[in-house]
Design a protein that fits this description.
Helix content is 61%, strand content 0%. With 403 residues, it is mostly helical. It is globular. The chain starts with 30 loop residues before the first helix and ends with a helix.
Length: 403
């Protein structure tokens, strides 16, 4: 027996089969929809008033505009706080789930988080938080005509300029977007352990670009850059030494300062040879005189059939040759290297991913389909070039550019 629809008579939530205007909420929604939605609503409202010259609606719509903006700020601060608590950067003790945005901002600011971007974004939010906290400390004044003490809300204010609000909302939206994205990225970076107490993974990559090559660390240039790094990232001498140690031990970072790393199972020559075989299937496309790529010719059925037969034979020949020349570990290494770049995987997970591929391959007797899958990738060369740089094989990346 079919259960009755509990929302059949609901004026806002009864089921309507309308692909254009059905919005995802609840179990089909995301937390980020809350963060983005309130600031977008505030901006859409203020834009509509100004662009349509809705002068009669200024006094009524300014309240939901400001409330939506305040709520968006509150949600963003809580989102960042929750992410940092989950990874133990912030202590969960003493955190109350209330509407005091000033307290939430102070907690983030005083944590002095080991990430330049987050510290900058949090500092950038200060005037917006202070402004909103001053006008509405607990999230009540913008929602109700009278506050908790039964006094008139916003009693110290008489006007709010909508063009000023419009410009400030756009600035605040950028900061809310940045704190949302950076808090997520920062937590993901922490999982790689490629960081120090004072510097995130992104900070260390930036520092690696700022300092000279490793062979020049005994020069005055290194000492000069050292002072610039310490000043910019607020580091003492111990912090700076910790940063250098992680940089030198990390494939991607050490490559920036001129230190090469070896791949796990496949040699440079083997990888170059595989790409050369791949080129037999994916030759460079000629360019026309006007710079546009040649889109090819119109083939007859017989011509296309002949091409298909030829390319199938080439695939089979190359697959057999790779099976004969490369070990299964080398093929697993090749596949892991490709996906590092294609899927934007942190280089620190290279070893882990190779081991996963090896385990996968151990349960497969025939690797032909795995090899064919790689050979079919039109972006194989591009991804291998990028991964080679990320994994510290700079000379290999340079050689791949010539194929």
């Amino acid at each position: 027996m079919t259960e009755p629809d509990p929302y059949a008579d609901a004026p806002f939530f009864r089921r309507v089969f309308d692909g254009r205007w059905n919005a995802c909420i609840g179990r089909q929604g995301e937390e980020e929809h809350y963060l983005d939605g309130y600031i977008e609503a505030a901006i859409e409202l203020v834009d509509a008033i100004i662009e349509k010259k809705l002068f009669a609606k200024r006094d009524t719509l300014v309240l939901p505009i400001l409330y939506n903006a305040r709520h968006a700020m509150e949600l963003a601060l809580k989102f960042a706080t929750d992410r940092l608590v989950e990874c133990s950067v912030l202590n969960n003790s003493g955190i109350r789930r209330d509407h005091d945005i000033g307290t939430y901002w102070n907690r983030l600011h005083e944590a002095d988080i080991g990430d330049e971007k987050l510290r900058t974004v949090i500092a950038g939010l200060k005037p917006f938080v202070e402004s909103m906290s001053r006008i509405d400390a607990d999230g009540q004044e913008l929602r109700y005509h009278r506050n908790r003490n039964n006094e008139p809300s916003l009693s110290e204010y008489s006007v709010a300029n909508l063009t000023l609000i419009q410009n400030s909302l756009r600035d605040m939206k950028e900061l809310l977007r940045d704190i949302k994205h950076r808090s997520v990225d920062f937590v993901n970076e922490l999982a790689t352990d490629a960081c120090t107490k004072r510097c995130s993974r992104s900070d260390l990559l930036e520092i690696a670009h700022m300092i000279p090559l490793r062979k020049n660390w005994s020069t005055q240039d290194f000492e000069d850059q050292k002072e610039k790094v310490k000043a910019r990232f607020q580091l003492n001498n111990r912090d700076f030494t910790d940063a250098l140690n992680v940089i030198q031990d990390n494939r991607e970072m050490s490559a920036i300062i001129g230190i090469e790393s070896s791949l796990l199972h496949i040699t440079d020559d083997e990888l170059i040879w595989v790409v050369e075989q791949w080129r037999r299937i994916h030759p460079r496309r000629p360019e026309l005189d006007n710079g546009d790529e040649d889109l090819g010719m119109v083939w007859s059925f017989d011509e296309f059939t002949e091409y298909e037969n030829n390319i199938s034979k080439i695939y089979n020949d190359i697959i057999n040759e790779i099976n004969e020349r490369l070990s299964s570990d080398a093929i697993a290494d090749l596949e892991a290297i490709f996906y590092i770049a294609r899927d934007n995987i942190f280089s620190e997970y290279y070893l882990q991913n190779v081991k996963m591929k090896q385990t996968d391959y151990a349960n497969i007797g025939d690797l032909n389909e795995k090899i064919r899958h790689l050979l079919e990738k039109t972006n194989l060369l591009m991804c291998l070039q990028k991964s080679a740089r990320m994994l510290g094989r700079l000379a290999l990346a340079q050689r791949l550019m010539a194929i």
